[in-house]
Amino acid sequence: MLVDDAEWMRRALTLAEQAAAAGEVPVGAVVVRDGKELGSGYNLPISSCDPTAHAEIQAIRAAARREGNYRLSGATLYVTLEPCTMCVGALVHSRISRLVYGATEPKAGAVESARRTLDETHLNWRVETTGGVLAERCSQLISDFFAARRAQKRRLRQSVSGTHKAEL
């Protein structure tokens, strides 16, 4: 792992924490070229009512706007969670040169877990990948988020069932 990779992943983790604070699944992403941040984002699908508003898409859109070009060759995307198929497609279409991610995503990860989309030979762009950067911290952030969400649902069910018992 490169020192810069850990530094930029910490930036992505900060963004993921912002997503969690907004009630979104805590995933953060940042696009970097030549040591400079071009764009960043975090998950917003729930609050924006937009199923494409993943952290990676937000960061790529911001970087493309800043650069005035939808092609981002030479750039690296740092993201706290292994990208899904949609986001891998965006990496290819935007010509991101390198992907660095933290935690794997066993259910929907399209780099190494559920699929290996970037290995498909018909793609017209190759993306170098590095996984597992600050993986434990990235994974823990997501685990904590979903544990808190499950606990909140349990409390809600208990309070509702308690209300029904009081009515009897």
The rough form would be described as globular
The amount of beta strand, in percent, is: 15-25%
- Give me the side-by-side strand order of the main sheet: 2-1-3-4-5
- Give the number of helices: 5
Q: How much is the radius of gyration in Å?
A: 18 Å
State the share of residues found in helices, binned by percent: 40-55%
* Low-pLDDT segments, ≥5 res: none
Helix-strand sequence: HEEHHEHEEH
Number of strands: 5
How widely separated are the two ends? Answer: 61 Å
Oligomer: single chain
Biggest sheet character = 5 strands, mixed
Mean pLDDT: 94
From the helix content, strand content and strand pairing, which structural class follows?
alpha/beta
Q: What's this entry about, in short?
A:
The chain has 168 residues and is an alpha/beta fold. Helix content is 47%, strand content 17%. It has a 5-stranded mixed sheet.
Structure commentary:
With 168 residues, the chain is α/β, with parallel strands linked by helices. 47% of the residues lie in helices and 17% in strands. The protein contains five helices and five strands; from the N terminus they run αββααβαββα. Helix 4 links the parallel strand 3 and strand 4.
